[in-house]
Write a structure and sequence with these properties.
Elements lengths: L5 E9 L43 E8 L4 E7 L1 H16 L7 H11 L8 H21 L3 H4 L7 E7 L3 H6 L4 E5 L7 H19 L4 E5 L6 H11 L4 E5 L7 H10 L5 E4 L5 H10 L5 E2 L8 H14 L3 E2 L5 H8 L8 E4 L16 E2 L8 E3 L11 E2 L12
Parallel strand pairs: 4-5, 4-11, 5-6, 6-7, 7-8, 8-9, 9-10
Antiparallel strand pairs: 1-2, 2-3, 4-13, 12-14
The structure holds the ligand C[C@H](O)[C@H](O)CC(=O)C(=O)O and magnesium ion.
């Protein structure tokens, strides 16, 4: 049986939302006084763009096979990631068979160990890995969820992340995760405001709708413990990414300190089986939240997920649009998925990676039928109206 080989790898950069979903314009809820690790500097408190959260932009990886099929993927990484793809990683792909995904991952990871392991480099490896799965799906004319072993459910259900859980409830989502607006540098008054916002939202949505706080790595253990305990009376379902990602010891203690029934979640800025092994073996959280475009791609996520299963932890990927939908459909320990509300006022459902992908499915009434994912590969195409820029070649 002849297997197509990889002819060429190309890396492009795109600006304006999409996979770098923090790259939004003025007045967007995602850039409105959100608590961050930079909140200790008052001049960087009001807007995350002020400290450069959107500095990277989107990386687009395209992989062309000898049979004419082209796989692609998007992730956060922009120009530095494009450099790494073109000047370093492409050599491990070109000439290889489109099925050589495991070896290619191993070579990309090991050849970048001396400057990689986490962050930008793993985002880049993830982008290449996702483009390889997309290509394989196109060559075989099968959706990625079938390549991963097949779906275990015929419908996905979603919670929404955004500033308006009350509106998300009306749109049929099972829960709403709010950004935490005030961090430790805003003192007792800020803590009170955070709890008031939760109380107001609880009043609007009633007792049963899930409400969660996303703390985006911004708290310390003492503040996080007090927030969790204060939030108990308003039925907070989980406290997310309360501490910096390297503070495994803090997470383990927060989990011990959290009120009974309240979950501790984290992992969107963690990467690879080795990073998640720390979270799982140290008992840091109840749910791990790898971002498929940042944790090492689908190839690595399968390993992370098996490890989580053995630790009785759920895997609910962060964002990642179609890349997480195809994964979630195939795992028993991923019972629901996240949907990031990218409408500026979080008042309507728009595709998570808008405007970069065409055919990107969205939940309807908080749900998505598996049949929405039944196209070859990840089932999306690049929007030709987006201006691709190829800063490097090889
Ligand atoms: C809302 C959060 O600060 C962040 O922008 C997104 C995130 O962490 C999540 O979706 O989870
Ligand atoms: Mg989060």
């Amino acid at each position: 049986m002849s297997i197509p080989t990889i002819k060429q790898v190309r890396a492009f950069v795109l600006r304006g939302g999409g996979a770098d979903y923090h790259d939004q314009g003025d007045g967007h809820w995602i850039d409105d006084h959100i608590s961050t690790p930079m909140g200790k500097y008052p001049e960087y408190r009001q807007s995350r763009r002020s400290f450069g959260i959107n500095v990277l932009g989107t990386l687009v990886v395209e992989i062309e096979a000898s049979d004419g099929n082209v796989g692609f993927a998007v992730t956060t990484g922009g120009e530095p990631a494009a450099y790494i793809v073109e000047k370093h990683l492409a050599r491990f792909l070109e000439g290889a068979r489109v099925t050589d995904i495991e070896r290619i991952w191993d070579q990309m990871y090991n050849s970048t160990l001396y400057y990689g392991r986490k962050g930008l480099v793993i985002n880049t490896i993830s982008g290449v890995d996702l483009a390889l799965w997309d290509l394989l799906g196109k060559v075989r004319r099968e959706p990625v969820h079938q390549l991963l072993g097949g779906a275990v459910r015929d419908e996905l259900q979603f919670y929404a992340t955004g500033a308006r859980p009350d509106l998300a409830q009306k749109m049929g989502f099972i829960g709403g995760k709010m950004p935490l607006h005030h961090g430790p540098s805003e003192g007792e008054e800020g803590l009170k405001k955070n709890l008031e916002e939760l109380a107001t939202m609880r009043e609007r949505v009633g007792p049963d709708f899930w409400l969660m706080f996303d703390c985006w790595m911004s708290l310390d253990l003492n503040y996080a413990t007090r927030l969790a305990r204060g939030a108990r009376e308003y039925g907070l379902k989980w406290i997310e990414e309360a501490l910096p990602p390297d503070d495994y010891w803090g997470y383990a203690e927060l989990r011990r300190n959290a009120p009974t029934g309240m979950m501790v979640t984290t992992g969107e800025h963690e990467a690879t089986r080795w990073g998640f092994r720390m979270l799982l073996e140290m008992g840091c959280c109840d749910i791990i939240q790898p971002d498929v475009g940042w944790c090492g791609g689908v190839t690595e996520l399968l390993k992370i997920s098996a490890l989580a299963d053995a630790h009785n932890a759920l895997v609910v990927p962060h964002g990642s649009s179609v890349y997480s939908y195809h994964f979630v459909a195939t795992r028993q320990n991923s019972p629901f998925a996240e949907f990031l509300m990218m409408a500026p006022k979080a008042d309507q459902v728009v595709p998570m990676f808008h405007p970069q992908l065409l055919g990107e499915p969205v939940p309807e009434n908080g749900r998505m039928r598996l049949s929405r994912l039944d196209q070859p590969g990840f089932g999306v195409t690049l929007n030709p109206e987006c201006q691709l820029h190829r800063p490097y070649t090889h």
